[in-house]
């Protein structure tokens, strides 16, 4: 089966665009519109990947990420940070690792595909 992906972005139009695109690719998509909702949905659904906006109401993406890293049930979820305001300084504040990538808006959907395949086992298919 394809992956379950959580999109966390406070821009409903952008989140909807990503949701539609990923669902057409066969993924199951969950959407959250603020940091608190993203944290709750990550714990509830335990997605295979999180697309996480850095600047959101409720909690910044970096705070959401740190919270998920502190829980044994969510620590292994890969995260793709997405932001229009992505700077080296922002990226330096977020712990890097093999399961973390960054993507600056706007971006071609082909780049999103590449990063999803990098972060998910077997190119997006999960056991």
Polypeptide structure, described:
- The chain is an alpha/beta fold and 127 residues long.
- It has a single domain, classed as Rossmann fold.
- It has a 5-stranded parallel sheet, with helices on both faces.
- Strand 4, helix 4 and strand 5 form a beta-alpha-beta unit.
- Helix 2 runs parallel beside helix 3.
- The protein is globular and about 30 Å long.
- Round the mean pLDDT to the nearest integer and report it: 89
Q: Can you give the helix content as a percent range? A: 25-40%
Q: Which sequence of strands runs across the widest sheet?
A: 2-1-3-4-5
Instruction: Determine the CATH superfamily.
Output: Response regulator
CATH class: Alpha Beta
Please specify the SSE layout and strand pairing.
Layout: E1 4-8, H1 12-24, E2 28-32, H2 35-45, E3 49-53, H3 61-69, E4 79-83, H4 88-93, E5 100-104, H5 109-119
Parallel strand pairs: 1-2, 1-3, 3-4, 4-5
Helix pairs in contact: 2-3
